[in-house]
Write a structure and sequence with these properties.
This protein is elongated. The protein has helices at residues 9-30, 35-61. By secondary structure, the chain is mainly α. The two termini are 30 Å apart. The chain has one domain. Helices cover 75% and strands 0% of the residues. α1 runs antiparallel to α2. Keywords: Coiled coil. Residues 12-39 form a coiled coil.
Length: 65
């Protein structure tokens, strides 16, 4: 599956910060370890990482002549 938006490092960092805040909020509210929630947050974080890697692979493959 290809990305529908271009990679933006500032936006990606902000997204990671929000994911961390969501994790903290859910942990505080539920007072127990929700493995399913952790898996979803990890999945979203991995999507951001995959987007980052693909972005840099495309840049490395370009000719800057």
């Amino acid at each position: 599956m290809y990305e529908t938006i271009p990679y933006d490092p500032d936006f990606a960092q902000k997204a990671r910060e929000y994911l961390r805040q969501l994790e903290e909020m859910f942990e505080a509210e539920q007072r127990h370890n929700s493995q399913e929630l952790r898996n979803v947050l990890l999945y979203l974080n991995n999507l951001i990482t995959t987007h980052y890697v693909r972005y840099h692979q495309e840049l490395d493959g370009e000719d800057f002549v």
